[in-house]
Write a structure and sequence with these properties.
Layout: H1 8-12, H2 15-20, H3 26-40, H4 55-64, E1 69-72, H5 79-84, E2 93-97, H6 112-121, E3 127-131, E4 136-140, H7 147-150, E5 152-154, H8 156-162, E6 172-174, H9 176-179, E7 183-188, H10 195-199, H11 202-206, E8 223-229, H12 242-247, E9 250-253, H13 260-270, E10 280-281, H14 285-300, H15 313-333, E11 337-338, H16 342-347, H17 350-353, H18 360-365, H19 367-387, H20 393-400, H21 413-420, H22 426-429, H23 441-457, E12 461-464, E13 468-471
Parallel strand pairs: 1-8, 1-9, 4-7, 7-8, 10-11
Antiparallel strand pairs: 2-3, 5-6, 12-13
Helix pairs in contact: 13-14, 13-15, 14-15, 14-19, 19-23, 21-23
Amino acid sequence: MPELPSTLGALKNSKFGERHLGERTVKSELRENLICKLQRGDDLFPGVVGFEDTVIPQIVNAVLSRHNFILLGLRGQAKTRIIRMLTGLLDERLPYVAGCEIRDNPFHPICRRCRDLVAEQGDKTHIAWLERDHRYVEKLATPDVTIADMIGDIDPIKAARGGHDLGNEMTVHYGLLPRANRGIFAINELPDLAGKIQVGLFNIMQEGDVQIKGYPVRLPLDIMLVFTANPEDYTARGKIITPLKDRIGSEIRTHYPLTIEQGLSITKQESWVERESPIRLEVPAYIREIVETLAFLAREDKRVDKRSGVSQRLPISALENVISNAERRALKSREDLAVPRVLDIYAALPSITGKLELEYEGELKGGDNIARELIRAAVGKVYTGSFEGVNVSQIVQWFELGGSLKLDDSVDSANVVKQLAKIQGLMEKTGALGLGANEPDALRASAAEFILEGLYAHRRISRNEEMGFTAGERKREPPEGGEGGRRPPRKQFN
């Protein structure tokens, strides 16, 4: 790579100088680079799943329109991840006046220091280079943020050391906004920002300048502003004041995964499944699907607060915990393969209950009970998809004739298979999940237990703490939490 120019004179005579001599703003830069990526067919937001036909086209339109924009959505909808990826639309490097706090354009300096420096040194003015990742400034809005934090303030110490009057531009201590000059400035959770601070953003958004401490210091900053917010925060912790909303060019709504397949893809991508371990880990597809279905059912459940939402972090954390419980069991049993079972999902309750904000009815029942009912409903739904049309009457009959089975999630796989093999017809039905007789015991135990849990979810058999799985109701009804209404919960075991 050729050496980058280090002085203003060298910059003028380089390819960089020609490009930056004109009035090329950050928004124009983002637009030009976006157009190039669209023409090449590049993936604009790699790793963001489920927004290809909804959110991303709207973001593209906003950037092409040179708009400041806001992403509105519930927690866990990749809002922060998306705005941080906007740096990929910036130039790889950008020249600025060396030592400048606000990264002044060498050809159009706006601060007093740089104007004086360029006037004095001319083409000998030193130039530094800014990487694209350093052109992104992010601030989490909190009620204690001040105007000085965002815009700047007069610094008496700087005035004393430099021998300047307090009204001199050289005494300014710049805030986050000026320091984001020629880059992207992002504010997370905008409604949490105090109203008077939101007012301070007016000028920079519409007139493109800021004023500091009432002094006639005008800085025509070049910034792309992006925000995130939870729409419910308008009436909860705070609100976005109307004049500020009016100045935001585009309001873009994010959403949770629209399909189970999208959710599975996100969870697989984000969860810590491929981990170093002394044993081999294998996660069956039905376990992944149960965990993901659990999140979808929670978002639909009337006992869960819709205004808070159910973050995609729930299935991610839950799956990690499920795998860890299976790993713990295999390590204690000295097995070389760990395969999660449905019982491990119940063991992952600590990673589920904390992510469910409950309505009054749900609070009365309790987070643990709600989570257990959601797991049971998810198992029933996945079981139906895997075993629809499969005759399991022989298994049900075994329990109706007095059979019972109590499984312990700490027992090794070989002994679990021996216990499960006593149930007539059970192990043969695991073939519907693609398993053969020669599969490892851990896989067979997990599959057979899934069948029993599915039958329990559909009330074909029962389960309790004392006896484990036993004969159940003869009348088949939908699983709790699914269609057809809810039934009072049975006593369940961990």
